[in-house]
Amino acid sequence: MNGQGTRRDARQAARWMKLSAEKGYAPARAVFGDMLLRGAEGVPRQPVLGLMWLSLARESADPDRDSWIIERHETAFSTASASDRTAALALIERQQVAGARAPQR
Q1: What does the domain layout of the chain look like in residue ranges?
Q2: Those residues with Cβ within 8 angstroms of residue 65's Cβ, 6 or more apart along the chain or in another chain
Q3: Which of 30, 66, 77, 99 could hold 57 in an S-S bridge, CB 3.0 to 4.6 Å?
């Protein structure tokens, strides 16, 4: 994310964070969610998606190891609008329903 050995590229960082987040890695979910929530260079601000990813990160976080995720989620949720919180939770619910319907391999 800091561009060590190469130029800094927030869009590329977001791409890698999303790939890792989709695999369920809580820290990547939190970082990606935060990138979307705040917006970053080349990454458009999408607060609802950001809250969704932060919520998913919170669900899968280890309370002993990942206290920063829990704190970030609490801060984001407490400062978000009611409509953004509701929309983020609806996205999670839709995602869980769609996942339950997906064929098992």
Answers
A1: 10-101
A2: none
A3: 30
Nearest alpha carbon to residue 52 among 78, 83, 20, 84: 84
Task: Give residue-wise pLDDT tens across range 52-93.
Answer: 999 999 999 999 999 999 999 999 999 999 999 999 999 999
- Report the chain's C-alpha Rg in angstroms: 14
pTM: 0.85
Tell me what the pLDDT averaged over the chain comes to: 89
Cα end-to-end distance, the chain, whole Å: 34
Whole-angstrom distance, CA of residue 6 vs CA of residue 37: 25
Write out the two tokens for 65. 């190891």
Question: What is the Cα–Cα distance from 79 to 71, expressed in whole angstroms?
Answer: 12
Specify whether the CB–CB gap between 92 and 56 falls below 8 A. Answer: yes
Question: Residues 8-36: what's their mean pLDDT?
Answer: 93
CA distances from 88 to 22, 42, 64 (A): 16, 22, 26
